Amino acid sequence: MRTLLVIAIGAAIILGYGYYHAATHGWLYIDLLDTSVKPYGRNIRDAEIRLLDSEGKLLARGKSDQYGVVQLIHPEAGECDDAGRAASSSLAARQEWPQCFEAISTWIVRWADRIRFIDGKFAACDLRAVPVTVHKSRPEWWLWWVPLPHVGGKPLTYFRLSVPVNRANCTSAAAPTINTLPNQPTESSGL
User: Fold this and answer.
1) How many CB atoms sit inside 10 A of residue 63's CB?
2) β-strands 157-166, 26-34: how paired?
3) How far is CA 71 from the centre of its chain?
């Protein structure tokens, strides 16, 4: 009986830690997709974005890189992109990357589920207050302890949003451009 109790307590601690880590650490994937490129579309490169809540308040800024991958910019830690790329060849970058990832992942989970609109600026397009839906999942929080390369690792909450854009006429393919957000900031300098 005592052995079963120890196993039950151990399992509860392991699973509890997995759930706690997933609830306090997250990652956000943003798909900026040019739907005017047929047949499948293409990621939009060199875009600047602003993520806004339901009242139009700024939650975060980001930019897409040369491959169309959107990188968020932490208010203090900045971007982790450079440290991630240099980690394979630099000891300093290998030490910097986990610290930057920790800062960004704990920051994202505090606001990502409040995103309702996105502003985007790329090439000659300047989209304002495009409505978006955030999808949230915690798929593997209970498997974090499994020591296999394709399973396990510290779990995260994943957030994903997609912004289909018809770049040919500079409109959101999901909905028309909206400029009627409450408290919408009016910045003459753009993003």
Assistant:
1) 19
2) parallel
3) 8
Q: For residues 9 and 2, give the distance between their C-alpha atoms in angstroms, rounded to a whole number.
A: 11
Q: How far apart are CA 9 and CA 51, in angstroms?
A: 42
Supply 150's token pair: 């394709």
> In Å, how far are 25, 26, 27, 155, 176 from 137, measured between CA atoms?
12, 10, 10, 11, 28
Whole-angstrom distance, CA of residue 179 vs CA of residue 158: 29
User: How do residues 80-119 score in pLDDT, each as one tens digit?
Assistant: 776 666 667 777 777 888 888 899 999 999 999 999 999 9
Token output for 113? 């589920």
Query: In the block, which residue shows the tokens 């943003």?
Result: 30
Pairing mode of beta strands 125-131, 58-64 = unpaired
Give the pair of three-digit tokens for residue 22.
Answer: 């997933």
Of the candidates 72, 74, 78, 79, the one whose C-alpha atom is nearest the C-alpha of residue 32 is: 72
CB atoms inside a 10 Å sphere around CB 48 = 17
pTM above 0.85, yes or no: no
**Those residues with Cβ within 8 angstroms of residue 125's Cβ, 6 or more apart along the chain or in another chain:** 165, 167, 170
pLDDT at 177 exceeding the cut of 50: no
| String of DSSP letters for 8-52 | HHHHHHHHHHHHHHHHH-EEEEEEEEETTSTTT-EEPPS-EEEEE
